[in-house]
Amino acid sequence: MKHLLPVVGLLLAVNMTQAQQEPVDVKTVQETAKNYMKQGDYSNAVLVLNRGLQTNTDNLELQKDLAFAYYLNRDYSHGIEVARKFPDRQDADVQSFQILGMLYKAIEEGKECEKMYKTALKKFPNSGTLYNEYGEMLWSKKNYTDAIKLWEKGIETDPSFSSTYYNAAKYYYFTTDKVWCLIYGEIFINLESYSKRTAEIKMVLLDGYKKLFTDANMTKDQDTKNDFVKAFLDVMKSQSTFMGTNGVTPETLSAVRTKFVLEWFSKYAKAFPFRLYEYHQQLLKAGMFDAYNQWVFGTTNNLPAYENWTKTHQEEYNKFDYFQHNRVFKLPSGQYYQTVK
After folding, report:
1. Average pLDDT, whole number, for the chain?
2. Alpha-carbon gap, residue 108 to 40, rounded angstroms
3. How far is Cα 268 from Cα 238, in angstroms, rounded to an integer?
4. For the residues of 248-293, what is the DSSP string, one character each?
5. Residue 51 in domain
6. Which of 46, 68, 83 is a domain's end point?
7. Which of 67, 83, 99 is the last residue of a domain?
8. pLDDT for 238-281, tens place per residue?
């Protein structure tokens, strides 16, 4: 019996070693780590992910989660140690570069971050996410000219990604431009309809229309060499007299924009197919354009008045509200009309 004990012990040790070396289920590790991250327990998330990587050493998903957990735990040096290998991997995806970019930005490593984004965009030249985040990095360095070029490129190549419109709309709002702020801002709130950023851009839109109609010379300081801008201003100018005598309100904007859609489709729709204006036309035909304009401008202009409007136009409001929550707004490629200087 005594001779059997060492043998049994040896077998148990072998079995334990095999169990330790047996690959764990990656999805289980990820789920456990994500639950810890949701609870704010980033240290345990790091522990779980490192254990998982002991038997899945080359698993990109676990590595990304680990680098992100380090980021959340403000352990940027260890996060970069994991993530700096991502650009050299054949299977690196957009999210891999995103995470590394977040870590570089956290330690203000601008040179390496910019180098990384350039590498990423060579691999993913149509990623709105990468154009947007690269632009935000340049914006933080006060390189506004190159930032807007990147956001514009993101809009052109990935037209249904919302954040590039958000940043571009705010950029143009703080310039003398009166056109692209309105167009990009309204596209944004249709792509991202119910977030804190939506409320912010609604304010930009209302004030943007006030700027547009306040100046008697609507074309002043505008890029009238751009045919789309020229067409937009041509149609808007014909409504300026009405707006001037009635002020900028949700009701007057609804009336002006109704006339704009009708004139646009009679004069410019063939030359400039545009999903936003096609959507306006769709809402007009369905009898929901007034409700839509209240949704865009009413909450910002006068919240009590907007709430009263929804009560006195309950059927119209409910119809639009249901439609708005159940539709998907996307933009096709080939409808990019901006010309960045």
Report:
1. 92
2. 24
3. 14
4. S-HHHHHHHHHHHHHHHHHHTTTTS--HHHHHHHHHHHTT-HHHHH
5. yes
6. 83
7. 83
8. 887 777 677 899 999 999 999 999 999 999 999 999 999 999 99
CA distance 331 to 341: 24
Who has greater pLDDT, 89 or 1? 89
The letter for the amino acid at 28 is T
For 224, the enclosing helix (H) or strand (E) is none
Task: Say how far apart CA 145 and CA 149 lie, in whole Å.
Answer: 7
pLDDT at 10: 43
Q: Is residue 337 part of a domain?
A: yes
N residues, the chain: 341
Mean pLDDT of 207-214: 93
Higher pLDDT, 56 or 295: 295
Instruction: Report the predicted TM-score, pTM, of the whole model to 2 decimal places.
Output: 0.89
Q: Which of 273, 265, 204, 211 is nearest to 235 (CA)?
A: 265
Instruction: Report the CATH number at residue 34.
Output: 1.25.40.10
Q: Is residue 14 part of a domain?
A: no
Instruction: Count how many domains the chain has.
Output: 2
Q: Kindly state whether residue 335 falls inside one of the protein's structural domains.
A: yes
Angle subtended by helix axes 76-83 and 94-106, to nearest 10 = 150
Q: Is 78 in the same domain as 201?
A: no
Domain range enclosing 60: 25-83
Is the distance from CB of 201 to CB of 175 less than 8 angstroms?
A: no
